[in-house]
Amino acid sequence: MPSTLPPLPDSLQALRDHHLAQWVAALELAGLAERRAALGVDFEPELAQVLAGSDYVAEQLRRDPSLAWRLIEDGRLARSLAEGEMRALLRQVLEGCESEEQLAQRLRRFRQWQQVRIIWRDLTRKAALSETTRDLSDLADACIDEAYQWLYPQCCASFGEPVSADGVPQHLVVLGMGKLGAVELNLSSDIDLIFAYPEAGETRGGRRSLSNQEFFIRLGQKLIKALDAPTVDGFVFRVDMRLRPYGDSGALVFSFDALEQYYQSQGRDWERYAMIKARVVAGDQQAGAELLAMLRPFVYRRYLDFAAIDALRSLKQMIQREVQRKGLQDNVKLGSGGIREVEFIGQAFQLIHGGRDRSLQQRPILGVLKTLADNNYLPAEAVRELTEAYCFLRDTEHALQAVDDRQTQMLPTDPQGQARIAWMLGFADWDAFRERLDAERGRVARHFAGVIADPDEDEDEQLSAQTDWVPLWEGTLDQPQALEQLSEAGYVDAAAAWKRLQDLQGSARVRAMQRAGRERLDIFMPRLLAMACEQDNPDLALERVLPLIEAVARRSAYLVLLTENPGALRELLVLCAASPWIAEQIARYPVVLDELLNAGRLYRPPVAEELADELRQQLLRIPEDDLEQQMETLRYFKRAHVLRIAASEIAGTLPLMKVSDYLTWMAEAILQQVLILAWREMVARHGRPARPDGSRCELDFIIVGYGKVGGIELGHGSDLDLVFIHDGDPHADTDGQRPIEGSKFFTRLGQRVIHMLNTQTVSGALYEVDMRLRPSGDSGLLVSSLASFSRYQLEEAWTWEHQALVRARALVGCEKLTERFQALRAQVLGRQRDEQLLLREVSDMRQKMRDNLGTQATRAGTTADAFTAAQLFDLKQDAGGIVDIEFMVQYAVLAWSCRYPELLRYTDNIRILDELQNAGLIAGEDVTSLQEAYKAYRAAAHRLALQNQPGKVSGDQFHDFRHGVIKLWQQVLPPQEPIPDTRV
Fold first, then answer.
1. What is the full DSSP assignment across 677-746?
2. What is the separation of C-alpha 923 from the centre of its chain, rounded to a whole number of angstroms?
3. pTM of whole model > 0.85?
4. 48-63 average pLDDT score
C-alpha cells in the first residue's frame, strides 16, 4: 500500500465529522473532555483518519471513551509490540480473575482494545501487512493459551488432575489451523482449532475419576465458551472445530495415538492440505511438537506422492466450479484470482515436493512463495507477481473488515462503501482501485490455471504428436510402416529402434505388469517417442532410456511422474543422451527421478554447509533405532546429489574444480552422519570409552581421508581411501552395561562405519572403502590410536607412505584430535630429509608404477610412437600424465617443507603448486603449465567417466601438456643411478 493516504473524498467527510462529534460528546458525558490535551498533538489528526475508515473503532471509542488513553500508554500506537508483549498485557488484565464470567469479560475487552490498536496502526500506515497479521495471530495465541491456563487448574479442582498410566500429568495441546497456524490471521477471522492430549489415563484427586478424554472434553468446551460465546461485550474469536477427525460428528478431543491412527488409516487429502499450516498455539508446547512430528509423515510423504496430484487437481476443479457460482466474483478471497488461489498454489507444491524438500515444510504463504522462487519451482517473476497480488488482496481484505469488524471478503456495492475502500487503499476513486484489483486477480488466476494442469490441456500440437505414435506403440502398424515413421521422425537406424521397442513389449517385466500399470505404460510411451524425436540423436536417447522404462515397469508410479511432468521427461532424455553413466545410474536407482522435477535445482547443487544441513535434517526425521531407513536416506541423498552434480557438469554450469569440490563435500557430509550414527549405536551398546587421563570420550575419533578425497579431487565413482584414528585408552573398559576394552570399542566403531558405507542395499552401497593406507596396510590394526599412528609415521613408514600423507586430511570427527593430527602431519612431512635419497625413492616408486600400470605398448608413454593416434595415452599413469604431476608435488613437499612450512597448508595439488610458486621454488610459468595440464587431464577423465569409458585417450592428444610435464619432471626429478636399499 502507499505510505500515505490521499485526501479524504468529499463523500466521506460528513461520516468522519459525525464520528468525531460522537466521540467528543462521549468524552464530555464521561467527564474526560478536559484531558484531551494529554492525548498528544498527533492523536486527533490520526483519529480523524481512522474514523473515516472504521465504524468499529468509532463505536468502541464512543462506548468506552477512556480507551483513548489506554491506546497511547507506553507509546503503543506509535511503535510495534515487542515479542511477548501481547501476552504480558493480557496477563496483567487477567490478574485477580475469579470466575469464568470475569474471564470472558476481560478477554473480550482486551480483544476490543487490541483490535482498535491494530486497526489504528493499519489505517495510519504505521504497520505493514506482516505486523498486522502477526499481531492478530499473537492476540489469538495469547487469548487461547491464557484462557486455557486459567481454566486448567479450575477443572483440576473440580474433576481431578489428568495423568497418564505412568502418573505423568497431562495437558491439552491446541493446534491452530489455517491462517492462525500460519500466523496470517485477518482482522475478523474465526479460528480453526484441533484439541489433543498425549495419553489415555484417568484423573486423580477429584471427587470421582474421569477418563482423560472426558476431562479434556469438558475443558475444551469451557475454552470454546470462553472465546466464542456472544455476551454484551461481544466475543473473542469465533471457534471452528470442524477440521478435527470426523468433523462435527467426531469427539471434541483425541489422544495422540487416536489422531495418528486416524490420519494413517482414514486421513483424506484435504486433511493433509489443511495440516500443512498446523501449529501449536496453546497448551503443552513440548508435547505438541511431538504430535506434529508424529503427523508429519502423513502431511509430507517420503517420496513424491502421485495420488496427491489427482487429489489436488480435483480440489482445484472444485475451486474453479465454486468461483463460477453467482455472487463470488466480488469476493477477494474465494473469487477467481483471490487469496485462496494464491494459497492453493503454494500448498500444492508443498504437498507434492515437501516430503523431499524440507525447505517447503513451512507455514506462511509468503515464505513458501519465496522458497518456490529460490529453489526454482516457479519463475522468479511469477513469484513476484503472486507475492504482490497476495499482499494487495490481504490489504483489501483488512480494509473490508476494518469497517465494521465483520468477517467479510465481499467488495461493497454502495457508492459510499466503494469510496471508503478505495481511499483506505490509497486510490483516488473506485475505478482506479478496481482496475488495480482486477489486474492483480487476473495474474493470480493465470498462475492458478497453470498449477498441476493436465499435461494434455492446451497442448494441441504436442498432443497431436503423441497421438501419432499410438498406432506404432500399440502394434497396429506393420513393420514397413513403423520403420518409415521412425525414419521420418529422425531415427538413423529405424530397424534398431523398432527392435528395441519390440523387445520392451516382449520383456518379462512388461508382460507381468498389472492392468493399471500397463495402462500407464501405454499412455506414457507415445509421449516418450514423440519427445525423443526432439533430441539431436533420437536413436541414442531411446537406446539409453528404454532400459530405465523396463526397470520401472513394476513400479509404474514413475511412469506417472514422467507423464505428468513433460519437463522431467525432457530432462531425462537430455541427460541419458549425454551420458550412458547417468542413464545406468537412473535405471539402477529410479527413485532419483524425483530430482528431474525441478530443473533449476537439478542444475544448482548446494554448497557444503547446505549439503551437511540437508542430510542432517533428513536424518532427524527418522527414529534413532531405524537403521534401515537411515541407510536408505543416506543412499538416496548420495544418488540424488550425484545426479545433480553430473547434470550440472554436462550442462557446463559446474566447472571441473567445483565438481570435485561438491563430490568431496557430499562425501564429508555422509561420513559425518555415518560416524555419528555408528558412535551413537556403539555407545548405546557398550557405553563410552575412556581417555588416557580417565575422563570419558566425546567422539574422540577422526576419519582421515587420503588420495582423491583428501586432496578434494573426487570423481564420479571414486572410492574412499580412509584411515581411522582415535585418542582413547585402548586398555580401559567402557562404562556401559556391556563394557569392552577401548581398543575393541574403536575397532568395532570402525567396522560399523565401513559396514554402513559398503553394505549393498536395494539402493546400492554408499562408497567402496580402501583402508590399505593405514599403518602396516592390510596386516595392521583397523583403527590406530594417535600415539601409535605417530610412532609408525615417525619410525616405520616408507617414503611412499609419506607421499600419501601429503594429501591426507581429517575429514570428520573430533576437532581437537583433528588439530593434533594436523600438527603430527606437519611434524612428519616437515622433517629434514636427504634430498638425493628422497629423489631416488620417489623416482623408483614412480618407475614401478609406470611398469605395472602404464600403457604397455608404449612403455607408459615413453616410446617414439606414444604421441601418435595409433596408441593410447593413459591420462593417469603414462609419462607426462596426472601421477607425474602428483609425484613432483609430493617430492617438493617432502624435500622443501622443512624450510617452507607453508607448503603443508593444503592437501590439494593445485594450491600446493601455488605455494611452491609463492615460495619461489618453481617458476610461475611452470606452475601455470602444471596446473593447466592437471586440470585438463582431470576434466577429460571426468568426461570419460560419464561416458563409461576408461581414462585413456588417443595418443595424439595433449602433446603440449605431456611434453611440458615430462620436461619439468626431468628438471625436478632428474634420472639417477639406482642404489641399494640400505634400510633395515
1. HHHHHHHHHH-PPBPTTSPBPSS-EEEEEEHHHHTT---TT--EEEEEEE-S-SSSBPSSSS--BHHHHH
2. 46
3. no
4. 95
